[in-house]
Design a protein that fits this description.
Oligomer: single chain
Order of helices and strands: HEEEHEEEHEEEEHEEEHE
Number of strands: 14
Number of helices: 5
Helix content: 25-40%
Radius of gyration: 17 Å
């Protein structure tokens, strides 16, 4: 699977759930006092099928809140982590952007405007703003020498409580990469039901949607019979790579990967 997240993703990631995109609505946020319930955060690294090294910024509760671009070496990825720490404490480093379907996300950028990391999709601008505030609060906790460690190399579902106190799950591949992320649930039991929905609907090819972004990248999402999004993936450089990602997830589901709950 070829995961592509880099400096060209600014508008593309927001297009993951739609075909085409409107011009991005770039905004800023008044950070205020972001409430962070986790007491620690760290960087989690993994090597993609393209041989590049990626990292997630992970809150103490296990929620990944920021995904990096791909780096050609572990040392370069470490430099990228330092850039997150250096730039993540500044509110001006965050760009709140809107997709044509009304979803929002944010980018963390360096002083030269290069994108360092990109968030997940959010259903509203206020949620994306809160997500950016969470990342800023976490970077303030990291200090100059943040912890980083390899991702857990076990294919599995993980259920956790987000910084917003809602429940989520994500699916890891065998290389540790988080390849499918859920929507928010108000109860843990609902998140567990969501996993069952992934297991049921994920076996049906018609429930997988591959969407085109304006720069030619592709994103995947899994929908239920009523059209609601159950889970979404990352950006891929070609439709064949996106289709391969779907096949990878289908293979994981067929293997009955375990569910790990907090």
């Amino acid at each position: 699977m070829f995961l592509k997240i880099g400096s060209v993703v600014a508008v593309a990631l927001a297009c993951g759930f739609v075909t085409g995109c409107s011009a991005a609505d770039e905004g800023s946020f008044d950070d205020g006092a972001a409430e962070v319930t986790s007491t620690s955060a760290h960087f989690e690294t993994f090597v993609g099928a393209d041989g590049k090294t990626y990292f997630d910024l992970v809150a103490g509760n296990g929620q990944n809140v920021l995904r990096s671009q791909g780096y050609t070496s572990a040392s370069s990825a470490k430099t990228g982590m330092s850039s997150v720490v250096a730039n993540g404490t500044e509110t001006a480093s965050y760009q709140i952007l809107e997709a044509s379907d009304g979803s929002y996300y944010f980018n963390l950028t360096a002083a030269n405007h290069e994108i360092i990391g990109t968030s997940q999709m959010y259903s509203s601008k206020s949620n994306a703003t809160r997500g950016a505030s969470t990342v800023r609060a976490l970077t303030l906790m990291l200090g100059e020498t943040p912890e980083f460690k390899p991702a857990v190399k076990q294919a599995r579902f993980e259920v956790f409580t987000g910084e917003d106190k809602k429940f989520y799950f994500h699916l890891r591949a065998g290389n540790g990469e988080i390849i499918l992320v859920s929507q928010a649930y108000t109860a843990k039991s609902s998140a567990m039901t969501g996993i069952k929905s992934v297991q049921t609907n994920g076996a049906n090819a018609s429930q997988w949607h591959v969407s085109t972004a304006i720069n030619g990248d592709y994103a995947i999402r899994l929908v239920a019979g009523n059209g609601a999004t159950i889970g979404s993936g990352e950006l891929y450089s070609s439709q064949s790579n996106a289709n391969r990602a779907v096949s990878t997830i289908e293979g994981l589901l067929a293997s009955n990967v375990p569910v790990i709950s907090e």
